[in-house]
Amino acid sequence: MTETAKDTTNNDPEQQLTPPPTPKRERPQWLNGLIAVVTLKRMRRWYRKRTPFGRRAPKQWTRPQPEAAYQEALYWEGFITPDFWDDDDLTQYPKIMQDLDDLEEYLLPAFWEYNQRATYYQRNYFFYQWIFIIGAFMTTAFGALSTYFTADDGASVTLLGNAYSNVWLLGIQLDYSMDTFFSLLTTNVSAITSYFTLLSNQGEPRKRWANYRRLTEELRMLYFKFVSRLPPYDQPTRVDKLRHRVIEIREQEPSSSA
After folding, report:
1. For the segment 160-207, what is each residue's pLDDT rounded down to a tens digit?
2. What is the DSSP string of 84-121?
3. In the chain, what is the greatest distance between 2 CA atoms, to the nearest angstrom?
4. Containing H/E element for 172?
5. 172-173 and 168-169 beta bridge pairing
6. How does DSSP classify residue 163?
7. Can you tell me the distance from the alpha carbon of 182 to that of 143, in angstroms, rounded to the nearest whole number?
8. Which SS3 state, helix, strand or coil, does residue 234 take?
9. Taking 70 as the threshold, does the pLDDT of residue 96 lie above it?
10. Distance (Å, whole) CA 29 – CA 33
């Protein structure tokens, strides 16, 4: 016995006379780009991604807790995790689960270690670059002001007036002339910038960042090669070959750490 389908037709004359809503007109792509440039949206996004102030990354990786957070981290790195695999239930495939367990034991510890160090040295590199840029700008500005007041007829005018000639601020007497004051600022800023530049050259953060990122991406490629069972990981000794390859990649790690 079949049931008669309910009549869902709208017989209300007032609702039938209501015009359909006007579709929202989308802005052209070039206009969106122009607005982003004018509002400095892209520049702010670029700055937030590269500025390290307040977001210094630790050198050593710590496993996220609880386990759901770790599985989410795997997902965002593009790895296979049963918790975020919507197409099928991976727990029904023992071979795939065994491959994931082997990768978790032998490959992923090295991946997370190198990935964290790559992030650490990347942010160190950007930190030193910001110090260099700001220091170079301030050195140029203070040097220009020092030259201006040296060439000015009022070069002998004190910084805060004769009434403050006996006042000291951070060990500097305030009766210095303007050209002397900015000359001291130029010297101090230049010395600080040179010091951080020396630290950057000795630590080589850009070189270490590139090395650790290369090792990280090699491990990522090895991960999917192993899961896909591509040669030479299509043999019974595939796990031993995986361990051997991970050891070879670890031997390429920079010998000294900064």
Report:
1. 444 333 434 445 455 557 777 788 888 888 888 888 888 877 788 999
2. G--SS-GGG-HHHHHHHHHHHHHTHHHHHHHHHHHHHH
3. 108
4. strand 172-173
5. antiparallel
6. G
7. 7
8. coil
9. yes
10. 6
User: Can you tell me the distance from the alpha carbon of 54 to that of 33, in angstroms, rounded to the nearest whole number?
Assistant: 30
Distance, CA of 126 to CA of 132 (rounded, Å): 10
Angle between helices 205-227 and 238-250 (to 10 degrees): 180
Question: Quick one: pLDDT band at residue 48, thresholds 50, 70, 90?
Answer: low
Is residue 121 within 8 Å of residue 212, measured between CB atoms? yes
The two structure tokens encoding residue 165: 């000639």
Q: For residue 56, what are its two tokens?
A: 């210094």
Q: Is the dihedral of CA 128, 129, 132, 133 positive or negative?
A: negative
Residue 83's pLDDT is 86
Q: How many CA atoms lie within 13 A of 68 on its CB side?
A: 0
Task: Output the CA torsion sign for 216, 109, 52, 136.
Answer: negative
Locate 100 and state its tokens: 């994931």
- One-letter amino acid of 48: R
Question: pTM to 2 decimals?
Answer: 0.67
